[in-house]
Amino acid sequence: MLWTTWSEEQVKKMLQKEEFGYQKIELPYGLSTGGTDRSATSRKIFPDDMTGKSVLDLGCKLGYFCFEAIKRGADRVVGIDVDPGSVRKARMLADCLGVKASFKLLDIEEDPLEENFDYVLCLNLLHHLKNPISALDKLISITRERLVLEVAALGQHDRKKVKVSRLRSFFLNRSPVIFVSRNGTSGSRRVQKFFITASAIENLLLHQRKMFARVEIFPSEHKDRCISIAHKRRIGKLLIVTGPTSAGKSTLIEMLKNNEAPEVAERIGIGDSSVWASSTSKQLEKLTEPFIEKLIFHYDFLRPHLRSAKVHKRDEALDILGTAEHITFLTIWCPPEILRRQLHQGEILPKTKRGVFRGKKRYLKILKEYEDPAKVCAHYRNWFEYTRTKPGDHIVVSLAGGVHFYTVEEREDLVGSKGLTR
Question: Which of 137, 331, 335, 338 could form an SS bridge with 421, CB 3.0 to 4.6 Å?
């Protein structure tokens, strides 16, 4: 329940003295500020019960959504804005309402965001920034459960600002585009430069990054814009079974799922394998439940190789590492001659007809690299170097001639020039 120490006379005096014209906020004694009623939006983005949740509202203005979160039981609520006047008024309204909401003066593009929150709101702000994509990455990094965006696309309200015809906006809004105006909005207020369509938001959050399980998008009643609610993926225990192409990752995962690799299962502490979900990089989008208790992730560490980025830190599939509470890296060591044989038998021969290979050309390039043990060694070293920067357990297993376990440091020693085939 909201309570206040303010008298009715004090509330009326505040309303007479201050200009509250952006958001309609209900105050004690049946009074309210002026501004737009955003109650329909708050019902869409907030569940009825937010007990114990933390909320960050960027570009909070007068703090309406902060107050709505508190009404629903949110525990820690912070609003930030770049305008000192808005922060001052939000603090005044919080005191009037008798609620514990914190309001801070902060520039999202210049200042660090050092605290994580369950809910992160960015309503009608992203399209006003100088670098919205960079800001979006900052928001993603501090979101624990839900990232809520409200953005300008090119609906009737916004298209008129930049003088885009109705027909042109019709086609643009059905494409995943970020429309950049030359000088911002028309008229004297040249502050809004970016217009981001709903499908562009979906691509940015769900497909270009792998940290969200699903994204819900629906129209906003405010200025003909759109709202997206992105549900952050959360994994309790993540087991990454990895190695180069044709190292035997799928086979080992199948053995673990069928309880046919007891030595490996005991070493990594997998327990009851039936409760573990499994996925490859391409299958992640099918896992739409935000919380997965235990996940086995099949990852080919040559995946970035022969692509434009070529380095693991630029591979969006590895965004999944940032969603897990505990990670175990299980890297399969496989000698070059075995890699060549397994790649040839598993991928080359089945897709060769009358002497012509009809599969992915990538396999032919990798097969050629497997002929050079030094290149195989380099790929393992690159992977070990990347994983060394990541928290979790790091285990190397060899299945050639029995099961053998190594630490990463031991394996690095063994992949020297004299130990490439061991």
Answer: 335
